[in-house]
Each structure stands twice: as C-alpha cells, then as structure tokens.
Design a protein that fits this description.
heterodimer; A: 397 residues; alpha+beta; 12 helices; 15 strands; globular; B: 212 residues; mainly beta; 8-stranded antiparallel β-barrel; 9 strands
Chain lengths: 397, 212
Amino acid sequence: MYKSKLIIFLIILLLFSFTLSIPAQEDEKLQMNLITMVYSVTAYEDLNELNFLTHIPIITEDSIPVYLKLSEESKFNSNVSGFNFKNIKGDKNLLRFTLKNCVKDIKNYMAIEIYTLKKVSSYSDMPKTVSFESYYNLKEDLKQYTQPSLAIQSEAPEVKKKAYELLYESWAMCNVVEVLKQIMSYTGYVIEFKTGPGGQTALASLNRGYAVCTGKANLAVALCRALGIPARVLHVLASHFIAQVWLPNYGWVRGESTDGFFPEKKHRWTVAWIADLDDENYAGQNREGVIAYLGLEGNVNAQWSMEYEEIAQPDRWIEVFASIEGNTSLNNTLFEKGAELWRLFCRLKNSGLGDVQLATFYGYQQLYFDSLVSKDIQSAVNFADLAIMEAKSLLNL
Amino acid sequence: MGEMTVRKFKIFFIVFILASASLYAQVRKEVEFFAMGGLNFYNLKFSYQEALSLPRHEAELAHSLGGGVRFYLFDKFSLEADVLYKTKKSELVEFSGLNWGDTFYTLRYFSFPVLVHYSFPSLGFNFFANFGLEINILRNSQLEDKKNEITKNPIPYTSPADFQLVGGCGIRYKPFSFELRYGFGLSNLNTETKNRLVIKNRGFELFIAYHF
C-alpha cells in the first residue's frame, strides 16, 4: 500500500519538476502597442498650407510598425488634410502632416495613433561578463559607433577622463557589463535631470552637470565610445532618447541612460530612429545635440511644440493594445510578413501614388490590422500576403 | 564594519597587548619590546568565476612602521604580537591585454600580526622562524591614475578588513633582528559581491627591528 503511494507520489513529483524545468518561451508572445503622438503648430500669420515632420517607428529585430491612423478625437486634426512620408535614407522615413488654412495665433493640434507589434522578450540571455579584448577587432560597420561626432564628443579630454573615472569605480573594471552599469548609473543619477541653456551635446551635458534625456543619452554613448565600446543613440517614442551598446557575440543592448540602469527591457520602447554618425554631426551643428529631425518643413512663420500632457497620460501613452500568445512559427511568419508589408507601405507612401490607386492596398492593410486586433494571426498573415502582392504590383516589383 | 567599530577594535587591541605584556613582564620578567620598520612588496591577485582577462598588477615598494612585544613561553618558543602602520602599493600594468601603467593602488592599514616564534641558534647567529595570523584594518585607500590625472580616495568597494596568514624567517644579531616575511591574504578585498570578482593581497615584507 505504502509502496504504491510512494510510486504515485514520485510520479507526481517527477511531472511537477518537469513542468518547472520548461523554460519560459518569451518569444512566443507578441504584443501590440498603441502610442498616440500629439503635436501642435501655431502660425504667426494666416497660412494656406504648412508641413510638419516627425518621427515614426522603424523596423527593429524585435519590433515592427503595423499601422498608422489619425486620431478621431474632435479636438485633434481639424486642419490636417492627411499624412505622407518623407524618406531620409534607407528605411528611415519621417511622417509629414499637411495642415491647411492655419489662422494666425490659433493652435492647431495634430495627433496620430501608432501601432507596433513587439516581441515580448528580455535580455535574460545576455552575457554576464564581457571583456574589453573582444572589442579590439571590430567589423567596419561597428567601428563608426566608436568614433566621435559633433554631438557625441567621445575624444574630448573631459569625456575621456570621466570614462576612466567610471572605469575605476568598480574593482570589476575588466568586465564591460559592470562598466556599462556604472556609465548608465552616472548619467541617470549623477547628471541631474534639468533643462537649461547650452545644448544637449555630450560635452555640454558633462560640463554643466545636468541635461534632459537627450543629453544623458549622448553622454552615455560618448563615455562608452571613449572606452572603445560601440554605442549609439536611439530616439524612441514618445520623444525620448536612450543609449544602445553593442556586446560581442550577442548584439545591441539598450541602456536607460536617464533612469540609470542597464540593460533596459527590450520591448519597453518603440524605436523611432537609430542615429548614425551623419545624424550625430547634423545634431551637433544645427540642433544643439538633439538627434532628431522633427519640426516644421521649410521656412514658415510658425512655431511647433510637443504636447507632452496629451501624450503622457499612462492610459493613452503606451497601452497594451493586444497580447498574442501561442504558435511560435506562425508568430514568426507574421513578424516577417509584417516587416515586409511595412517596407512596401513606406515605399508606396513615397511613390506619389494617390489614395484611389492605393485603395485596394489600404483595404487589405486595414483587414490585416483588424485581424491583429482580434488576435486572428492566421487571417492577419493571409491579409498581409494579399497586401504585399498588391503593393508589389503597384510598385512594379 | 563601521568606522567607529574599527577604531574601538584598534584601541582595544593595542591596549590589550600592552597591558598583557606589562602584566606578563611583572610576573615572568620574560618579555621583550621592540620597534620595527621595513619595506614591503605587496601585490593584488585577481580571480573571477568566469573566464575573463583580468587586470594585472605589479608590486610596488612600500613601507611598514611600528613595534611589538614578545612573550617568551618556553626555551625556544615565544609569542609575538606587533602593531604596524602598513602601506601596500601596486601598479596596474596590464588591463585587457593593453599596457596600462601609471595607475597606482595604495592601501594603508593598521596591522596586527600575532605570530608563534621559534629560535634556533646556529653558526653564531640566532636564527628564527615565525608563523601566524595578521588582521589588517583599512585606514585609507587611494587610486591614482597619473596619466589621466584621476585620484580616487577611497577606492570604492574595498574591504575594511583583510585577514592574512603570515610567515617568515630571520636572524637576530645583538639588539637587532632582520626578518623576511610573506603575507598570504585570505579575505576578498572586493566588497561588491554581485560581480563575483575575488581580489587577494599577496606579498613579501622585509623588517629590521631594534629590541629594547
């Protein structure tokens, strides 16, 4: 009797321990986020038309944009006649709002809903130790991210000195991961979060001792580069800047240079822009270190601003719109198709084709989006396929 | 260990040795006091749980100064207790495969070695050997990178106490003695435990003592 009970107990124990040993498969989860970006433009004279440019999400290894939609709230977009894209380089596009009939001194609000599909994953598999030697023979495409620029002055003596000081902050200076934690902690906690005159370049932020997220990200990147670690600035939605650092045999890892921790959660932010050296030099020369292209197009007598209060309401800002679990292979297919569809959508938006010509494409894209919202992944994949075929036909591919 | 506790411990230890020495002297009249000073070459040895290229330090010349008392227990055995102000210095010479240099780590301690001392007269000299335990209480730590003009004082995450095994040998000639001692650090000097880096002190010391 006891023997049989013991056997049953052991079987249960074995089954229980087996369930415990199954690793959490985070990649099986997809999450759709909604961010509503809100801007305003005030013209200082009556203007028939003006254009405002802003950033939209880019495709990254763990996030793809899926849909853009003008907000239907009555207080927004009353003057907006539509939106288009402006290609800057490669896959990088800006969103262009066109505003009609702007009356002098009246604030015009623009709001766009941005939907992204993200893999819910963390950096749990990130190496805990990385040596500095592993950076000695970097590939050419990574070398640019160790170079100084006008916004990220990693060769400046003050920056170098601070980088070494942070290196000496821990006995474990030989471990790059520990050094990166020191750097993010420094920009997050020692550099005060404050606005003020003097720009947001890395050097200005270091010398002044305070900065906003822009300056903190620039400084964190500069400190990494001063030690030979490839790093770059990410512009993420809604209007925030963080640092990204390259770890050998692993890849790019995000660090929260404003809140002071490393690594950052992979899916916390939606990436709008990955700055390269040209962007950094442009920001250093023309934009006081702000590595972003948003603003009014051309010389118009008007002023724009970001409506942070409208954006920063937690229930509207980053809202979990849908969470999709289940079939890993189907999710991966959806992710690949979604990325291809977005690339083609950007090309169509830059092609000059009119809404009438794009009507069928938009129809399939809408059905793809609706299927995602209702978590019907198979249908989303099917409609993505149809939209891709239509886009290729329109673009003669 | 708090700074106040360390200070109390040091005072207690010094008073204890001096008081017990003078008490013992009154009873047995077999106690000897001496002043001592010397040079040391201490180095920091790094080890990590995972394979990682570790910093390489080289010992730098530093000094020790203090005194001690010896209690003669038997014919050849005695017990020695010293109180020393000791500076240990090393240079970071290699970091991640690069020649570094000009970066010096200095650790200043109040040291309290307690040793068993064995004498064996031979060839007209009084040879001796000793072995014991040393408690080092950190007084001050400093990192100086001369090339980049960086000074850190104190060095973050440095253990306030370092226990060492010590052993050595020497000769006694009239009121003087000369001794070579080796110190084998037992404590991890790195208090930032989450990074799993272990650093230990190792080094030689050369002493000259004058016995009263």
